[in-house]
Amino acid sequence: MLTYHRLKSEKLPLYDYEPWQIREKTFTIRNNHHNETIFSLGNGYMGLRGTFEEDYQELTGQSTPGFYINGIYENEEIIYGEFAPKQPKYYQTMVNLMDWEKINLYIEDEKFNMLKGEIIDYERVLNIKKGYLKRTLVWESPQGKKVNLDIERIISFKHIHLGAIRYEVTPLNFSGMIRFFSELSGDVKNHHHLRNKRALSIIDKGIKDGKLFLLMKTNNSEISIGCNIENTLINLNDNSITKTDIVNKKEIKEVFEIDCKKGRSYQLEKLASFYSSKDIPKEDILYQCEQDINLILKNNGFSYLKKEQVNYLNNYWKYSDVQIEGDKSLQQAFRYNAFQILQSTGRNGETNIAAKGLSGEYYEGHYFWDTETYIIPYYIYSHPEIAKKLLSYRYKILDKARDNAQRMKLKGALFPWRTINGKEASGNFLGSTVQYHINADIAFAIYKYVKATDDKEFLYNKGAEILFETARMWLSLGHFEKLKDNKFCINEACGPDEYKPAANNNCYTNYMAKFNLQFAVEAYKELKAKKRDKLKEIKYIINLFDREVSKWEKASNNMYLPYNEKLKINPQDDSFIYKEDIDIENIPIDQLPLVNNWHPLTIWKYQVIKQADVILLMLFMGDK
Amino acid sequence: MLTYHRLKSEKLPLYDYEPWQIREKTFTIRNNHHNETIFSLGNGYMGLRGTFEEDYQELTGQSTPGFYINGIYENEEIIYGEFAPKQPKYYQTMVNLMDWEKINLYIEDEKFNMLKGEIIDYERVLNIKKGYLKRTLVWESPQGKKVNLDIERIISFKHIHLGAIRYEVTPLNFSGMIRFFSELSGDVKNHHHLRNKRALSIIDKGIKDGKLFLLMKTNNSEISIGCNIENTLINLNDNSITKTDIVNKKEIKEVFEIDCKKGRSYQLEKLASFYSSKDIPKEDILYQCEQDINLILKNNGFSYLKKEQVNYLNNYWKYSDVQIEGDKSLQQAFRYNAFQILQSTGRNGETNIAAKGLSGEYYEGHYFWDTETYIIPYYIYSHPEIAKKLLSYRYKILDKARDNAQRMKLKGALFPWRTINGKEASGNFLGSTVQYHINADIAFAIYKYVKATDDKEFLYNKGAEILFETARMWLSLGHFEKLKDNKFCINEACGPDEYKPAANNNCYTNYMAKFNLQFAVEAYKELKAKKRDKLKEIKYIINLFDREVSKWEKASNNMYLPYNEKLKINPQDDSFIYKEDIDIENIPIDQLPLVNNWHPLTIWKYQVIKQADVILLMLFMGDK
């Protein structure tokens, strides 16, 4: 995974190096796609791109609105260039759900649009410490009306089904009519990946008891998603407001017309709640959405959510912050990343961390081994309860990993490369399967988690079964090779470096497999010594015999570990050092990244690496 | 290529071992698909499956009618499971063209159908010596009417645009009305490969001057194909015939009604001619079809075609027959194959030999390196003029092979793995590109052709340019590897064995590349000595300098040639001998062939071979 894309539109930095915030100081439409990602909000359950409340998408093509719930995907059959047996059958693609953040503002007959009139003052701030997004601006309309706008947005960490927007308007140089158009739209589509970009059908919609509601369903995977929205004008008596409901075929709107006075502020609060059939029975979705909103309304709405948000993050930062002196850029980058990780992480044991978090559609919302390798270590030492949930996800999909091993005529379990629901979802001919090291990465994460927390219950109840099944996979994948002193060799595998798939004895893979096998043996012995009944239960369930465990030990002890005596290095695999040198300095910039511009075979023949491979191994197993 | 499929429906042999024919002695509908292939006729330009004249397809699902013209294909965009750059963009799929062999016979109101009534006598013979297909049978209708049928079919080798059927009926126990329904149908589709199976649109159709005509066009590749048909009742005066024309939306029919007398024979001759816009301008197609038929009609029709066919084949067998004593099966197999090769071979320098000939749709009518490796040697020593045409095809597509090299960031020319029009047409992630050895196979065929014929003109005018461009490809593909004594190594390549794609130093590939480079150097030196002007011209055209030729020589002389001192063998590649042994005897039969049942990665990790690899090398380079 992890392809590096250069930002072409602007030279970095786009934002000042500030310790606790990301601040955009001027509005620049050509940076909008980028900013929609940077200013996205999420809470692990759902995520909303930093798309402005007012319309720009159709006007400019510079906007990609997106709202996602972690784990909600659409299936689509994978079409291959040529048939090969046992390839994965269906894509899983995270679905762009209802568009709910839209609020258009009319000042008399002029529609607020930052591309028209004049922006006198502008600032957009993502407050990392407190967890909200705020835009403040003074705008003068083409006809000369000035307004101050103050717009805040929250996706609640505590109330994970809730998002909210607080939209404040202050007429600066006029009194007159303003109108809010607050929308909930089912007219949505995916921007990437799906052949049929319209993954959703509208099942129900309307306005009931002052709440906009919308129930949708994915066409193939048949997951239902519902939303309720309540719009409230704060501190206004109903006499000064005219309210109109509009229910169109694919969208619902509430229009508020207010006779405004110069200098006074008018606030619209938009509360939105979301549930899916992954959470509760589909019949209860809309009811539960309503209940959630009512609860917040009772508690003072947006202000309450914001207060709770600050509390939540105070607690998060207590255990997560790292203070870096002397490098403001790094300080900001660390905190932004720590915040984004929290925004992205599914914490219910059923979901995980999508490659792009919940901020966009690339990588289809898929979970990779990056979770165990790059993110779980962070949680282990800051929020081990989250690390445990993420590892529990692997236990949850263990059955599907068993099916995946069977697909490859392997024993035990083989965890998928890309997945949401546990099944392999990649249409990449080799990539979908060849990164067997995922098994060991998960085993290694379990090891680190248990070592740091001493959470033996997790090891006994979930970890051990994962370890045994992954160890089984290794034993069936490799073999004792007579031409290599009967060492245990693993052929046709890919390490972290995806530019060398299907190599023999990838160094990272073999070392990590050795670890996986050994840790499985140790866990087995520990269970035997301390939890005989539990071991008996697991052995019964997975039909495990002692002789198999001996074989794991033998394979681990006799693992072939590539080392070149002449060069005194651990070569990446059996053939890497015999590849042609690449003259990387002289590759024209328009051919980078190579993965997007060169045929795979062209890349493979060079000593060029996509991801750190032996380097990563040194980090994990440097002591070996 | 070349996947072995077992014939499940019947135990072999289906036919007696006879020296000059294939004879079906009983009609068995469940063997029909198989027999349609075995009894197919062709002449290198076009091919017709051995489908019966009367309808069975819709009745039984046991029939796959097919008529093909060599080189007529439809394009369709390749969809890949996941994007990778520089992959081939379009499929080329041989198109199932108009259905023209259909003749339905009615005896009073009973439609002739071998699945009804009783077959009293039956024989179908493919006469290999004389080049025609003949079916003879006595059939008793459900109502007790007996007829003798005698049906012959020819695809003319001499008049390559013509095919003909002679259909003779003899009422054995009755006098009465019989009717022939002779059809020409545009209601056709491909049976395999294309997503949109309907590749053709009807442009024009009708009956004019007693001829049925039909003009069609492929939807994407925009190739026009036309047909004329003339039906003639032999030795009958018009008084005894009633003729009706039927022009439907997608098909044209002529119906002949004859008042027959018991014991007398009635013969319908159906002559058909075909041209495409690959042959002549599309405006002239139908006119030229008409002219071709008129010419044959003037010359006594079917009998004339048959006489010419026998003459043609007499001449062919004079140079091609091999008499084998003591093994009737082998004798028959040899002649059948020699006949099928002739039927399949495009001989106009613009077309080649499709993997399944012109007998069916598998492999999409694609040309592979099998032509140079397995078939050209046969022609070199029997019909060198055909070998020359086949090699000229490679010269014709040289420009596209240059584009193909460029696609892979290689120099010179890289011939495609699968093609009709010269562009690579495979959607196989690796297969589409990795068999670089094709270049050397072509060079080797040129070598053998020139050596056997001493056709230096071909070498100078076409061969040399191919050799130089293929040599260039090798030099850019491989490199001198410092860790292997600066030997010239070729990595990430696939030999004939497709179960080991992307191996380093495939033995077959390296030996053949060495030969290719060396032969290019020799050709260069010979031209320099004997045809300086021609060499100058080529060098100018392809921008070739002497220093490049020196590098070819250096690479050839220093080619890394895999040899294992310990095992005293030429290993297939750098890693083959370190793969796991496969227990081939214990693979359940339902998992064969592996290529259709195991994931490629599962196969690759074993020492199992799809095509002879080192073995084939031993055949070619045994003396080396």
What would you note in describing this structure?
2 copies of one chain form a homodimer. Chain A has 624 residues and is of the alpha+beta class. Chain A is 33% helix and 22% strand. Chain A is built from 17 helices and 21 strands. Chain A has helices at 32-38, 57-60, 285-298, 301-320, 328-344, 370-382, 384-396, 398-407, 431-434, 437-453, 456-477, 507-530, 532-542, 546-557, 594-597, 600-604, 614-621; strands at residues 21-24, 41-42, 46-48, 67-69, 73-77, 90-94, 103-107, 110-111, 118-127, 132-140, 146-155, 162-171, 176-185, 200-208, 211-218, 224-233, 241-247, 251-260, 266-276, 479-481, 487-489. In chain A, the strands form 5 sheets. Chain A has a 9-stranded antiparallel sheet with strand order 1-9-10-11-12-19-16-15-14. The longest helix of chain A has 24 residues, at 507-530. The two termini of chain A are 26 Å apart. The relative contact order of chain A is 0.09. Residues 1-10 of chain A have low confidence and may be disordered.
Query: Assembly state here?
Result: homodimer
Mean pLDDT of chain A: 95
Form type of chain A? elongated
Structural class of chain A: alpha+beta
* Radius of gyration of chain A, taken over Cα atoms and rounded to an integer in Å: 27 Å
What is the strand arrangement across the widest sheet of chain A? 1-9-10-11-12-19-16-15-14
User: What is the share of helical residues of chain A?
Assistant: 25-40%
The count of strands of chain A amounts to 21
Chain pair with largest interface:
A-B, 48 and 48 residues
Count the helices of chain A. How many? Answer: 17
Strand content of chain A: 15-25%
Largest sheet of chain A: 9 strands, antiparallel
Low-pLDDT stretches of chain A are 1-10
How far is it from the N-terminal to the C-terminal residue of chain A, by CA?
26 Å
